[in-house]
């Protein structure tokens, strides 16, 4: 247990998308089994045990969501088909051949970046790489979780009887409002997908540029790369 580490990726990549995923599951459950039961928006609090259970559930749901994200197009495959990246990929292959005596000329880009990441990890110079990796995971999970939430809200919009209780008085929730919120979730998912693609590209380029850098006198690779666009 002492070797277990709770990293930033656990929060950004699993917990935060998992919270949205739990909300999506709750809306599905509400719509399917209790469509006429109002949501209590006030005078409701959670105990410490319930908060802990919610966090743990969100964390595991986040893992499930990241699993769904495996069906998204691979950023390496998309970049490999981009002609503008051909020169960078070719130079990275040559860099790996000269540095590690590895002939990666016929391997896929994801295999090349995997080898480049191993080289980077051995140097301990992973700060920039970690920033890109954390944000890539956050936006990838967020894209899927908000996509699920949009489907849940759309399903709720098709069910009659949605309402919210405020101060003991139930107020109807219109299908139009639910559908509009579903559309908003779709837009957020699209934005998150674009951000996911952007940081994935930053990560890949950073790895490919890294293996082209010269070694220092002590045999370590000098990381002179900087986050593109300030990582935004």
Give a summary of the structure in a few sentences:
The protein has 232 residues and is mostly helical. It has helices at residues 8-33, 48-68, 75-80, 86-100, 109-123, 127-157, 175-210, and strands at 39-40, 163-166, 169-172. A three-stranded mixed beta sheet has the order 1-2-3, with no helix packed on it.
Describe the overall structure.
The chain has 232 residues and is mainly alpha-helical. 65% of the residues lie in helices and 4% in strands. The chain has one domain (8-215). The protein has 7 helices and 3 strands, in the order αβαααααββα. A 3-stranded mixed sheet has the order 1-2-3, with no helix packed on it. A hairpin with a 2-residue loop joins β2 and β3. The chain is elongated and about 70 Å long. Residues 217-226 have low confidence and may be disordered.
């Amino acid at each position: 247990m002492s070797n277990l580490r709770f990293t930033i990726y656990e929060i950004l990549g699993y917990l935060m998308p998992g919270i949205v995923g739990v909300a999506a599951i709750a809306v599905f459950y509400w719509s399917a089994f209790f469509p006429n039961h109002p949501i209590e928006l006030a005078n409701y609090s959670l105990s410490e045990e319930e908060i802990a259970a919610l966090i743990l559930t969100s964390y595991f749901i986040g893992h499930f969501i990241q699993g769904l994200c495996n069906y998204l197009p691979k950023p390496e495959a998309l970049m490999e088909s981009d002609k503008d990246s051909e020169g960078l990929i070719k130079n990275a292959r040559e860099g790996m051949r000269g540095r590690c005596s590895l002939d990666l000329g016929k391997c896929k880009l994801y295999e090349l970046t995997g080898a480049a990441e191993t080289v980077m990890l051995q140097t301990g110079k992973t700060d920039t790489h970690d920033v890109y990796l954390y944000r890539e995971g956050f936006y990838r999970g967020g894209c899927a979780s908000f996509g699920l939430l949009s489907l849940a809200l759309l399903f709720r919009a098709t069910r009659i009887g949605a309402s919210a209780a405020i101060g003991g008085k139930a107020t109807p929730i219109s299908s139009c409002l639910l559908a509009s919120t579903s559309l908003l979730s779709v837009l957020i998912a699209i934005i998150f997908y674009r951000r996911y693609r952007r940081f994935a590209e930053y990560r890949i380029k950073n790895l490919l540029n890294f293996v082209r850098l010269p070694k220092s006198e002590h045999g370590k690779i000098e990381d002179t790369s900087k986050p593109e666009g300030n990582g935004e």
